[in-house]
Specification:
There is one protein chain. By secondary structure, the chain is of the alpha/beta class. The chain folds into two domains: 216 residues, D-Maltodextrin-Binding Protein, domain 2; 190 residues, D-Maltodextrin-Binding Protein, domain 2 (3-Layer(aba) Sandwich). The protein has 17 helices and twelve strands. Strands 1, 2, 3, 6, 7, 8, 9, 10, 11 and 12 form a ten-stranded mixed beta sheet that branches. The chain has a two-stranded antiparallel ribbon with strand order 4-5. Helix 16 runs antiparallel to helix 17.
């Protein structure tokens, strides 16, 4: 084992012992296009696939995703002649960390933005994005989520944004029409009041930055500056956002899912416990499978004092720096992120492609989800720094008690924590 690999192995062991990684699958695969040439989407640096078999580790949302990625890998394998094994992890963070610690990581794997810095900083990741022919096609905001110290390390595989999901039966029962779709905070509060009954709250979303952060963005705030290197938590804009959410909680027109006997927003909507929820496009599959009789529509989130704002969530295709066939791994990723293959993934289980060139095609195929894609133009991501996931976890713990808490004290504490992480 080389000294460099020993250093990376030691660093990864320390990382595994010090933190619990929090990767989560953000969509996944689906089918393949016979017209797609695997060789046209890979490494552009002259390196060649040496034929060594590849292993792909994914955190799957279910059988549809697993089978779709397997089908896509098989299509690429048939073209390239290189064997590929796709493994659906039981515990992706643990299995990925153990693989690196044992100096035997998968060649290609799902990687969350909140864990990018941990693996990039110790040399575990191959920065390959500039080798992809479609590198300029990815949404810049998504690439920023996988950029560490100025280098884009991995290609976003797909993404999600948050929208306002409305139970249309409840909407009509309250006497509301299309003209009442909220476009401002004031209008959101008003319709939430009208939709609130003895058995149903007007609005619900999770007690976490991953939902409440939308209001911070709409107020003109956020966790960091656009470059992601400065903490901007303790600001008047973010305070206005937390105070707005706090007021709705106090009014009883907003309730967290756990307070209305639901596990998450989709369940609150499906059970009729909430008339509106703030959720991502993953809610589509959940509603189809679990609540097929509930009618709903998705609209863009209303604007706040700072304009429109939402959050984006994405994973990338990580490539191990010390893999035995890195050229083949990059070529495989090029195939998996091609516009044709991403549209196959979208059809398989409802994700949004990470490339801009299929915007119109995707919207035409999934018009009921157009509001989610519209959010890509003004979405924010989370901070990319080692330890940022722990800061957000602590933030979420404090947000659970926001109704009776001091919003300013919360922001002050999180500001200090994030400043320490960003250095």
């Amino acid at each position: 084992m080389s000294r460099a690999r020993t250093t990376r192995r030691t660093a990864t062991i320390a990382l595994a012992a010090a933190t619990a990684l929090t990767l989560a699958a953000c969509g996944g695969g689906g089918g393949f296009d016979d017209e797609t040439d695997a060789g046209d989407n890979g490494a552009g640096d002259g390196a060649e696939d040496n034929g060594e078999a590849l292993t792909v580790l994914i955190g799957s949302s279910g059988d549809a995703e697993t089978q779709a990625v397997q089908a896509a890998a098989a299509a690429w394998s048939a073209e390239s002649g290189t064997e590929v094994e796709v493994v659906a992890a039981t515990d992706l963070p643990q299995e990925l960390s153990q693989g690196f610690a044992a100096d035997d990581p998968p060649d290609v794997f799902y990687l969350g933005a909140d864990n990018l810095a941990s693996y990039a900083s110790n040399g575990s990741l191959l920065p390959y994005v500039d080798q992809l022919e479609n590198a300029d096609d990815f949404y810049p905001v998504l690439l920023q989520s996988f950029t560490y110290e100025g280098t884009a390390y991995c290609a976003p595989k797909d993404f999600s944004t948050l929208g306002l999901v409305i139970n249309t039966d409840a909407w009509e029962a309250a006497g509301l029409t299309d003209d009442d779709i909220p476009t401002t905070w004031e209008e959101l509060s008003a319709v939430a009041q009208q939709l609130t009954t003895d058995t149903q709250v007007g609005l619900s979303f999770g007690a976490e930055w991953q939902r409440i952060g939308t209001f911070m963005a709409q107020a003109g705030g956020g966790l960091t500056n656009p470059e992601g290197n400065e903490a901007t938590v303790d600001t008047p804009e973010n305070l206005a956002a937390l105070e707005y959410v706090q007021q709705m909680l106090a009014d009883g027109t907003l309730a967290y899912p756990g307070d209305i006997n639901a596990g998450w927003g989709g369940e609150a909507l499906g059970l009729g416990a909430a008339a509106m929820v703030i959720e991502g496009n993953w809610i589509v599959g959940a509603m189809t499978n679990n609540y097929p009789d509930v009618s709903y529509r998705v609209v863009e989130l209303p604007a706040g004092p700072g304009g429109q704002g939402t959050l984006q969530f994405t994973n990338c295709w990580g490539v191990a720096a010390d893999g035995g066939n890195t050229a083949g791994a990059v070529d495989l990723v090029g195939f998996l992120t091609s516009s044709e293959q991403q549209m196959e993934f979208a059809a398989a289980f409802g994700v949004m492609p990470s490339v801009q060139s299929v915007n119109e095609e995707w919207t035409e195929q999934f018009p009921e989800q157009a509001a989610f894609l519209a959010g890509a133009d003004y979405a924010q991501g989370g901070p990319v720094a080692q330890g940022a996931a722990d800061v957000i976890s602590d933030f979420n713990s404090q947000l659970q008690g926001l109704k009776d808490a001091d919003p300013q004290a919360i922001l002050t504490a999180v500001q200090a924590n994030l400043e320490a992480v960003l250095g």
